[in-house]
Amino acid sequence: MTSTSDPREVQAQLESLTTEAFRPELAEIDRLPTLEIAQLMNGEDALVPAAVGRCLPRIAAAIDDIAARMARGGRLVYAGAGTAGRLGVLDASECPPTFNTDPTRVVGLIAGGPEAMVTSVEGAEDSGDLARQDLDALRLTPDDTVVGVSASGRTPYAVAAVEHARARGALTVGLACNAHSALAAAADHGIEIVVGPELLTGSTRLKAGTAQKLVLNMLSTITMIRLGKTYGNLMVDVRASNDKLRARSRRIVALATGASDEEIERALVTTDGEVKAAILTIVGGVDGDTAARLLEESGGHLRAALGEAAR
């Protein structure tokens, strides 16, 4: 898998990007004391939240559209190469344990496949065909959302993923770190977090990577809030798959209800460890079967189910 692009053309494209800009004032950074380098890096990182803040209306609009489609059974799919792809895979992989989502509901695609998570796969990011193949394997529907992620905003794999998904009727989001990017232009929702040149020239795993991580956190977390995966700021859909999470489940029920340890334990046993249902049995005063029914009827929204139980 090799690129057929003219290297000089690619070089010219990169030189025009803010994320690739050379900073002469840092040309002797390697001669500075370690503490000064750390201070410089920390100062650069501090610029990222403000850059994300300038794009919050666009981010929020994308989230509302994503949540509406996921409520109808759609999926959230991230597609990127290199650092951007790894960040998408990371965000997707954290949704099942955090929000008890089916692993197929939030999917991370990285150019080159799983091998590319730990090593470079030559030419994968330059292949639009590979992106189309990866998405075709998912059998996209109009209720799905594909988020192309690329710091440069020109990565062929990410751009082709968004173009192909949009042609298939899916919702598309383009997340880039340069203005006027091809990726944002190709998407229904273009989000460009312009963080400026990196401390190390072209090392977009730094500020650009941090910006992408923050936005992906928002896309998945706020979408899950909209889908009723939380109750207030409590992760009531947490999957208790280990001792730590079982302890967290008990604590969440305690925080939501103020019940005694004995009552919490009985509720969790009655509801087979389901935190939402346990809270509903305690606060709503219903049995386990009724709690399960009310949650199903409310689409999993605990607050709505509590309202029904109180009638």
What would a concise description of this structure say?
With 311 residues, this protein is α/β, with parallel strands linked by helices. The model has no long low-confidence stretch (mean pLDDT 93). The protein contains 14 helices and five strands.
Number of helices: 14
SSE order, as H and E?
HHHHEHEHEHEHEHHHHHH
**Can you give the mean pLDDT?**
93
| Approximate helicity band | 40-55%
Query: What is the total tally of β strands?
Result: 5
Radius of gyration: 22 Å
Placed side by side, the strands forming the largest sheet appear as 2-1-3-4-5
N- and C-termini, Cα separation:
62 Å
Describe the protein in words:
Helix content is 51%, strand content 8%. The protein is globular and about 70 Å long. Strands 2-1-3-4-5 form a 5-stranded parallel beta sheet, with helices on both faces. It has 14 helices and 5 strands. Helix 5 (82-99) links the parallel strand 1 and strand 2.
Spell out the key features of this protein.
5-stranded parallel β-sheet, alpha/beta, 51% helix, 5 strands, 311 residues
Map the helices and strands.
Blueprint: H1 7-15, H2 34-45, H3 48-53, H4 56-71, E1 76-80, H5 82-99, E2 106-110, H6 128-136, E3 145-150, H7 156-167, E4 171-176, H8 182-186, E5 189-192, H9 207-226, H10 243-257, H11 261-270, H12 275-284, H13 288-297, H14 302-309
